[in-house]
Amino acid sequence: MAGTASVERVKDRATGLDKFVLREARGSSVESSARLDRVCFPFIRSNFPSILVIVDVNISFQATFKPPKAIRGGIQICFPQLGSHGVLEQHGFARNQFWSVDESPPPFPVATSNCHIDLILKSSQEDLKIWPHSYEFRLRVSLSPRGDLILTSRITNISSDGKPFQFTFAYHTYFSVSDISEVRVEGLETLDYLDNLQSRNRCTEQGDAVVFESEVDKVYLSAPSKIVIIDHEKKRTFVLRKEGLPDVVVWNPWGKKAKAMPDFGDDEYKNMLCVGAAAIEKPITLRPGEEWLGKQEISAVPSSYSSGQLDPEVIRRMHTI
């Protein structure tokens, strides 16, 4: 029986920090820590009568909470850069910060559900020492009435020096999968990508889908607004939609690198895959007073796979989400 949508603030037993639990009327839920290392599930969504689909965003069993280091897994907010270069830390500083609840957010230009939490991050004195730009970062985490997870980021240049700034951005999303060798990503075929394992060489995807047999660390360029991640064993398809984010990051560390990561289990690479919307190839430039918006939406549908194509019924359901 359907209930009502709610947002509850509770204490996280593992970290001692406040977290927010969003519950959609039909049973879906998502947790967001106040220290926004991650947006984490599982959440349960009931798309169709008598069908429950478990949608997991992966959190490593070896993950530890040691501020200011981000927790491994979930959905990490990578700003003002993805990767490691210059004086900034790996994947930028936003994922390692304490965010505040935005009690009076301005109207959002895109439709979201009533089941949401608004968070805000502003420049600190420590940030300005390594990245001398004044910014305001507003993030809305919301669940749609169907249980889809929607992340909407708004970044504004609030500097008074008249200077623009540039940044790159990614939602580094850890999906939980049954077996990485049984997963394929569709929608990225024929695209150019930057291969981070080959000094960011520009290559072209040759397969009819992205499949996984070894370590992968790629940025697919000018990707379509919707891609799908098909988990054959669980007969489940994740649908990722994006706005304002032209690129897509795909990453799996595979065995050798997994063993070298202290906050990641030796075999956990077999049950995870990072796929996230991003803006990497062409940095975003904001002049003072300008705002940028980037949105990622994740949903899931039961699916089967046959002869290299999604079933027509699954495609129909995807278009109606």
From TrEMBL:
Under the heading SUPFAM superfamilies, the entry gives:
Galactose mutarotase-like (SSF74650)
Signal peptide region: none
**Cross-referenced Pfam families:** Aldose_epim
Catalysed reaction(s)? alpha-D-glucose 6-phosphate = beta-D-glucose 6-phosphate
User: Which GO molecular function, any one, fits this protein according to its record?
Assistant: glucose-6-phosphate 1-epimerase activity
InterPro entries from the xrefs? Answer: Aldose_1/G6P_1-epimerase (IPR008183), G6P_1-epimerase (IPR025532), Gal_mutarotase_sf_dom (IPR011013), GH-type_carb-bd (IPR014718)
For this protein, the parts annotated as crossing the membrane are none
What GO CC terms are in its UniProt record? cytoplasm
Superkingdom of this entry's organism? Eukaryota
Family annotation (PANTHER family) = APOSPORY-ASSOCIATED PROTEIN C-RELATED, GLUCOSE-6-PHOSPHATE 1-EPIMERASE
Q: What is this protein called?
A: glucose-6-phosphate 1-epimerase
